[in-house]
Fold this sequence. Notes:
The structure is a single chain. Strands 1-3-2 form a 3-stranded antiparallel β-sheet. Residues 10-21 have low confidence and may be disordered. By secondary structure, the protein is an alpha+beta fold. The chain has a domain at 30-86: Multidrug-efflux Transporter Regulator, Chain: A, Domain 2, CATH 1.10.1660. The chain is globular. A hairpin with a 2-residue loop joins strand 2 and strand 3 (66-70). It is built from 4 helices and 3 strands, in the order H-E-H-H-E-E-H.
Amino acid sequence: MTRPVRLSDRLGKTRPNQQPVDGPGSTDVHGFVSVADAAAFLGLGQSTVYAMIDKGLIPHAQFGRSKRVPKRFLVDTESEALRGRG
Length: 86
């Protein structure tokens, strides 16, 4: 039995006739990423990210049962950290 392919496994990879898969490190800041990808990008555990979402510290969108983090939030957080504000 093979394991499912996660978005983080496919970042930067394309199939024929397809655009690259977007992830937190892509230059496109529109859209959302999974909590797992956001946690990896932020260097946190998934349960920590879920707790921060529940406390309102991380914005999110709900798609069915799945919570997603806006890419813009990750880019802004990284920019603030690089400027010494984070």
